[in-house]
Amino acid sequence: MNTRPTPSGPVAPCTPALKFREIPESDIERALALAYLAFHEKPEDELRSHHKDLLRGCARVGAYDGDELVGMVAAFPFTLSVPGGELPCPGVTFACVAPTHRRRGALSGLLAELFARCAAEDWPLAALWASEAVIYGRFGFGDATHGITVELDSTRPLALRIAPDERPLRLVDPADAPALIAGFYERTRAARPGRIGRTKAWWTEEWMNEKDEDDEDMSPPRTVVIGEPLAGYAIYRTKRDESTPGAPGLVRVDDLEAETPAAAAALWQYLASIDLTGKVRAWGRPLDDPLLLFAADRDQVRVTDEFPALWVRLTDVRAALLRRSWAAPVDLVLDVHDAHLPDNSGPHRLTSGPDGTAYEPTHDPADLSVDVRDLAACYLGGTRMTALVHAGLAAEHTPGAAAALDAALHTELLPHTVDGF
Description:
The protein has 421 residues and is of the alpha+beta class. 26% of the residues lie in helices and 31% in strands. The protein has 3 domains: 18-143, Gcn5-related N-acetyltransferase (GNAT) (Aminopeptidase, 3-Layer(aba) Sandwich); 147-308, Gcn5-related N-acetyltransferase (GNAT) (Aminopeptidase, 3-Layer(aba) Sandwich), CATH 3.40.630; 316-409, Nonspecific Lipid-transfer Protein, Chain A. The chain has helices at residues 28-39, 45-56, 106-121, 133-137, 177-189, 200-207, 261-271, 291-294, 317-322, 372-379, 385-390, 401-409; strands at residues 18-22, 59-65, 68-76, 79-82, 85-88, 91-97, 125-129, 141-143, 146-153, 169-172, 222-226, 232-239, 249-258, 277-285, 301-308, 310-314, 330-337, 346-353, 356-361, 368-371, 394-396. The strands form 4 sheets. It has a 7-stranded mixed beta sheet with strand order 1-2-3-6-7-16-8, with helices on both faces. The radius of gyration is 23 Å and the shape is globular.
């Protein structure tokens, strides 16, 4: 669920009357009522039941004015792929504040309580999807992954510069798909930072749900796979264009993974050849999707949108830096500013090389000064520190320091997230 708690503006001090505590399971109905009030929603019983199940599996923090629940955040117990491994990373969702309690510090108190839990549970990261991005930057979240929407004109065969994999494709029953493709997804997500681990329930309830929450006209999910053993898959839905009789329909690609460019080409070629359709739309593709290079005609394959996707918060900068791998040796002093978690602030010497990684307080002069939100944007390798310096968002005190950090943070594939929550 998108997060939309309050209009932008300075962070409000927390009102003393508000108390922040765990939302018990007995208050989940009240929590949903608050969320639907804040997001102007009136879901059907089936979707409401789904939201209830989601909240049961989340950590839940409430803002209470006396006995009245007036704000909340929830957090999925996710793990996130980072360079060299993965880390626990609560996925913040259902963030909302009652309209009667706007600008009274409810969100500040809720996130402070969540950050305290991150420290207690050894969660060095937190993440969210932001419907109002300006809000969360103020709390130290940085846009760590970006996505693009790609549209293919499928009124004609997809022109390719490479030969597609010729192994047969087959459609898989949605009930059988998670067991078949989950292992493949896990292998591919390890190669690209920014991806969450999908549980069996997440596969079933989020990816293979027969009804689409955003568009009730969409078909149930279809899954096509290639190769034996598996070399790739695509999850997609279709719908007809009811506005004009005989108009070609739409193929919406929700997820596509392939181990080789040839396998990816075969999947895209299949999606573009589905009868009675004339457009393929893929939302949330990575910025470095190889389709953009092996498509022979870029008038046929167009990027129609680019957007920030996953916003990451370094709740423990030291732990986050120590628990990722580095592409090149680095030795420099970072002076980090964190207005909400002061233990993250101050100059620290970051060193990484054959003997391991260290990040320790120092009195040495800083080579780079950066806000924690901008360090978070760089953390997965999707934003360059040199770009932040050129934009005036970070200060380079030693020439070449930003480029050295970029080299160390580099990842072969850009970070990418398609799992919204």
